[in-house]
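Email to the structure team, subject: Succinate dehydrogenase iron-sulfur subunit model.

Hi all, the expression group asked for a predicted structure before they design truncation constructs. Nothing fancy, just the tokens so they can compare against earlier work. One-line instruction: predict Succinate dehydrogenase iron-sulfur subunit, return tokens.
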Amino acid sequence: MSDLNTAMIEKYRSNFLKEVEANVEEGEWVKMCMQCGVCSGSCPLGKHWDHPPQEIFMMIRANKREEVLSTDSMWMCTSCYNCIARCPRGLPITHIMHGLAVYSKRLGLIQKKQPTAEFSQIFWDNLMKKGRVNELKLGLSMYFKDGFGQGVKNAMANQKLGQNMMKAKRMNAMEFFGGHSVKDLSGFQNMVKKAQEIEEGNLKDAK
Ligand code: SF4
Ligand code: SF4
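Reply from the structure team: attached below.
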């Protein structure tokens, strides 16, 4: 268990709602949920998850900390915004779902092989190198993340897609050798580092 997770359990013992309100993006909205179920009924994917949004909000209020933070349901949200458009209480449901995903990652509670979390990390690492996404390297990183053999199979299966992206100039073979970076790369990296420090500081203050 990570030190941060232990500290948070200690600080918010038996009050998971308070922990969510203090540490999760838009978490202060959870208490406004009236459990009508419209969000879960509107979510195109929720029925395939362990816990659709309405259930997650009910579990937060019922203090089911471990179940909420270890489920991968919030990682499956595609940001379609159906739920937000229909919630009679105007909860920013999508943001809360993503906020919970980010918080569980910070606490070291996500499953190692959760595919969306894996993709997010690969995307982030790719973006941070040049300040912009290198589509070719992003695709290759995804194809080869489970080893060379699987990577070759993935690349063969998707070669048509790659060719079409090159034709549409969404991908350039020269990107393999580095690709463009933003004009002020170190400025960009410093800005992100500063934002991360501020966020980390906010979490420490919450301890
Ligand atoms: S639609 Fe809004 S009020 Fe209804 S269950 Fe979902 S979040 Fe709660
Ligand atoms: S934004 Fe996420 S939680 Fe809301 S309906 Fe779409 S997939 Fe479901």
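Residues 30 and 57 are 6 Å apart (CA to CA). The domain at 3-111 is CATH 1.10.1060.10 (Fumarate Reductase Iron-sulfur Protein; Chain B, domain 2). Ping us if the truncation boundaries need rechecking.
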